[in-house]
Amino acid sequence: MTPAPHRSHTDDLLSFIAASPSPYHVVASAAQRLEKAGFRELRGTDDWTGSTGGLFVSRAGALIAWYVPEDAPAHTPFRIVGTHTDSPNLRIKPAPDTGTSGWRQIGVEIYGGVPLNTWLDRDLGISGRLALRGPNGVPRNRLVQLDEPLLRVPQLAIHLDRSVNEGVALDRQRHIAPIWALGDPQEGELLRRVAAAAGEDPADVLGWDLMLHDIQPPGYLGVDREFVVASRLDNQVSVHAGVTALVDAATGATQPGFIPVLAAFDHEEVGSGSETGAQSPLLERILSRSVSARGGSDEDWSRALAGAFCVSADMAHAVHPNYSERHDPDHRPLPNGGPTVKVNVNQRYATDSTGIAMFTAAAERTGAPWQPFVSNNAMPCGTSIGPLTAARLGVTTVDVGVPGLSMHSARELCGVRDPGYLAAILTTIMVGD
């Protein structure tokens, strides 16, 4: 059976995923763990002067957290772990109440690269946030999480589509609206249901960011329970590992020799081009302000970046046993073989030899295995926030990730050992020698 240390980490990971069906819940879950470890939240309107210890800033679906050791010079270099909080899914439209042929349905929009067949015939709940009337005209936000079998995208019976197993593409616009009741559409029905679950008056709801999630809980799979199966492993495995590493670096017996940072961005799955995405100045402004708050100058800021190192942590592809020809013949990562170091010479990943050396040296000190990953040259390569962060900050960056199967599916798979390996390596990097 799985050794206890790995199982303990993944048990905690599964609890994190179950509590985090949307990017906003991911931020809330991470913030709760940070506050328990003694971190405190800063707001943009606060005075940050002299701030040390564990700190974090949250904004919608993004969170930037860092730890400043006592008496750390303003030019102390950063050790950054970059991740993302979002996952491909189905998001509810602004005017959601629809239906046809005697069925009441909910209008949804496809977010990111969704393998739509994985969302068919699954029991779906609703999660996200409501924007409500607040004092002085400033909206207040309320998280909602309905872990109930409310909706379903029904698959067409094979008797009515004999070509269903021949790879016929789904109609992305007409046939994806989930059902949830019989009868004619009732305007405002969804809003009333969600507001009631949140204990709010529907009249106070001014807007929302709502999405669907599979309510099947995360768990273990395999003859020896050697696999983790869950929704949103991409990329909550990395967020959870980053939070774990940051807390361990801040509370360990040895004070870190750097400023450890966790940067969890939103909207990576759709290009990161938002105020909370990796293309925004969010991380740059927060880190720069943290240097200034400790009395640092522009020169200190430049020195802190010059010595910085970033690990971009995102899920990676394990070799698929039924489609091995889709993978590079000499790079075939397997679950429980350790995190992968992702390389692409066309800079879809930001890894270079210096980044490889820094990550693998940390893996050696930790005693954790690692695996190299390169995409098949005959196929387009995915990307991550690594190149965006490297270009924005000009820091050495390495792209890594836990290898898994069924990426972007409604239910993904990875090895039970690899999340713990990743967290241990990230802790070593954050603390330094």
What's the quick description here?
With 433 residues, the chain is α/β, with parallel strands linked by helices. The protein has helices at 4-18, 23-36, 189-197, 233-251, 282-293, 298-306, 353-366, 386-393, 418-431; strands spanning 40-41, 53-59, 62-68, 78-84, 89-100, 103-111, 124-132, 140-151, 179-182, 205-214, 219-221, 227-230, 259-265, 309-313, 316-317, 340-343, 371-374, 396-401, 403-405, 412-415. Helix 2 (23-36) packs parallel to helix 4 (233-251) and helix 4 (233-251) packs across helix 9 (418-431).
Describe this structure in words.
It is a single chain. By secondary structure, the chain is an alpha/beta fold. The protein has 2 domains: 4-87 and 231-431, Zn peptidases (Aminopeptidase); 89-214, Aminopeptidase i, Domain 2 (Roll), CATH 2.30.250. It has helices at 4-18, 23-36, 189-197, 233-251, 282-293, 298-306, 353-366, 386-393, 418-431; strands at residues 40-41, 53-59, 62-68, 78-84, 89-100, 103-111, 124-132, 140-151, 179-182, 205-214, 219-221, 227-230, 259-265, 309-313, 316-317, 340-343, 371-374, 396-401, 403-405, 412-415. Strand 16, helix 7 (353-366) and strand 17 form a beta-alpha-beta unit. It is globular. Residues 168-174 have low confidence and may be disordered.
